[in-house]
Design a protein that fits this description.
This protein has 324 residues and is an alpha/beta fold. The protein is built from twelve helices and eight strands.
Length: 324
């Protein structure tokens, strides 16, 4: 409760949903954060803990509460969370004045939640890592990297992958009135595509996007700048990695003519990664040779794990292709 009070979550819930409904939503959130299961068992949990002004909520009442929440209210709540960051960052600047003027990092991440529901329109079959036989709903959460505040969330169909979802997320944030002039959006390689780069350029949004190292163009750049990625001049003690930045011209046809600008690709080589990988590949290769020779002996009995060595060797070689 103290965290919700100090972070402004409680007051923002009251402002958007009203004091009574906002308080109920806060308690239900605490229940889930505490590891609570189905909402129908909320009241059993409530009786075992102390919460100020908590009241009994039946399963039916909880359903009514949750169904009364509108998308506009959720958007309004996160707008308050986003706008609050100005005050939060003024406090951060007092402790770290060197950060003033630098873009504030907003990190995007996606998660999937499996469901048995047959009534939720967003519940669809997708690329589930767990429970592939169940439908799922996708959620994207946007978090301030330094303050830890969640400033936005977006729910979308379970069949939509991360790459395709980014356009809807950006549209929803713009529609909510988010001013992102001070921010840089940080996404992992799951969101990586040329279309998404172009989309953020069109919206004049600063971005930092992870890229899959299996892409041919990226492997070519690693090969071209391999020598630089081994020089001490390009070593970052902060990142504990060698780093090299490549400028890549970007062009776009517009009604006003050809638009030219520069984008930047940041290459990293992790210290010790090559040596550890080379040792692992060598050990696996030695084991394969030993097994091949032993196969000629009729008394040999192979263990199941031996059959995986060739696959593992191929996996490690491919997984490290960006570093060689």
């Amino acid at each position: 409760m103290q965290v919700a009070e100090n972070s402004g979550i409680r007051s923002h819930l009251h402002e958007i949903f009203g004091k009574e409904l906002g308080e109920d939503l806060l308690y239900l959130s605490i229940y889930k954060l505490a590891g609570g299961g189905a909402m129908m068992t909320y009241d059993l949990w409530r009786q075992k803990v102390w919460l100020p002004r908590s009241k009994r909520l039946s399963g039916q009442k909880i359903s009514e509460i949750l169904s009364s929440v509108t998308r506009e209210q959720v958007t309004g709540y996160f707008r308050l969370r986003h706008n609050r960051q100005d005050a939060i960052w003024e406090e951060i600047y007092k402790q770290n004045p060197e950060l003033r003027g630098q873009p504030i990092e907003y990190a995007l991440d996606n998660t999937s939640i499996s469901t048995y529901s047959n009534t939720l329109s967003e519940a669809q079959f997708g690329h589930a890592k767990r429970d592939p036989d169940l439908k799922q709903i996708n959620y994207t959460v946007i978090c301030d990297q330094r303050s830890g505040d969640i400033v936005f969330s977006h729910m979308f169909d379970g069949a939509v992958n991360d790459v395709s979802s980014l356009s809807d997320i950006l549209f929803s944030m713009r529609e909510a009135g988010f001013d992102l002039d001070k921010n840089i959006l940080v996404t992992d390689r799951g969101y990586s595509s040329l279309e998404n780069v172009q989309r953020m350029i069109n919206l004049n949004i600063r971005y930092l996007q992870g890229v899959r190292h299996i892409e041919d163009s990226l492997q070519q750049r690693f090969a071209k700048h391999r020598n630089s990625l081994c020089k001490n001049a390009f070593y970052s003690s902060k990142e504990k990695a060698f780093a090299f930045t490549v400028t890549e011209p970007w062009t776009q046809n517009t009604e006003a003519g050809l638009l030219k600008l520069n984008t930047y690709i940041h290459l990293y080589r992790l210290v010790g990664h090559e040596d550890a990988t080379a040792q692992l590949i060598s050990e696996n290769a030695d084991e394969i040779i030993r097994l091949k020779e032993a196969l000629q002996k009729p008394s040999l009995t192979l263990r199941p794990e031996n059959f995986c060595l060739l696959h593992r060797l191929n996996f490690y070689a491919n997984d490290c292709s960006g570093y060689f």
